[in-house]
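Recall the central idea of this unit: under ordinary conditions, the amino acid sequence of a chain determines the structure it adopts. In this exercise we apply that idea directly, starting from the sequence alone.
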Amino acid sequence: MAKRRPARVPRTATGKQAGPDVLASAERQARAGMKERTEEGHLLAGRNPPSRGHETRHSGAVQLIEDAIRDLPPMTEDEKLLQKIGPRIDFTRTDPWRVLRIMSEFIEGFDTLAGVTRGVSIFGSARTGPDDPQYAAARETARLLAEAGYSIITGAGPGIMEAANRGAREGRGHSVGCNIELPFEQGANPYVDTLINFRYFFVRKTMFIKYSDAFVIFPGGYGTLDELFEALTLIQTGKIYRFPVILFGRRYWAGLVRWLQSRALLEKKISAGDLDLMLLTDDPAEAAAAVVAAHSSAHPDRRTVTEGAEAADRMAVVRAR
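Accordingly, the structure predicted from this sequence is:
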């Protein structure tokens, strides 16, 4: 009888043996790292991070959707929503009640951003300081897009987000910030004109997609990658159309692109066309021009397609009557 080999223990990406203690430690370090990066972005811009003490904002931004987020306990609403809840609990703490709160967030977001007819979301690291070349590039890209008539939408934080909102101001465009509730107070940069605070990541992500005609992705971490692959998936599955996804910083993204080519494409997990959904550049003018060109072409964008479908639906109702 063959001797059974001892079961191999899975390891983390850094080679540690996986286990509850390792996972718990990794989660704590990940949260601490995110807080550190966000605070560093504010400090590099010469501001005291809101998580280290309350700071009054002087940007003149319109704050909407639960300004009382600052007074919430450390547990976030996303965390509460994803927890399993027992049957004996007050209704105001149940999932059906949260559905109403989620609905109100969608309504407020749609109502506030309804006037954004052309928008570009710009993503990137909160840790990027004003002296970083990527900060200057994001600022210039946003300025050019604002001058071309686009609203600039960011996550409202420091770093690349601040640079983009700042560029929008300099280009005399509409500067939008979609802030998210975190276990620590992230705070908004002072260049946001319209600030919306969200409890739920998926509501906020819907706003980025719905009111944007393109994504410009600067070097960043997990959150940036999340937005990148969400957009690519929606394009790949035909949910959105004529939607440029621009990776800014060829050197930073080169490793990811090489992996997609050598692994995902080679093993037929994606197709060659999927790689061409991403545009790479190091030039703000080139990035802005790609956005403008994509939506001044003769092909219908997703809004035209949606409007056509809605018109067809209305005609079907009329005929049925």
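DSSP finds eleven helices and eight strands in the chain.
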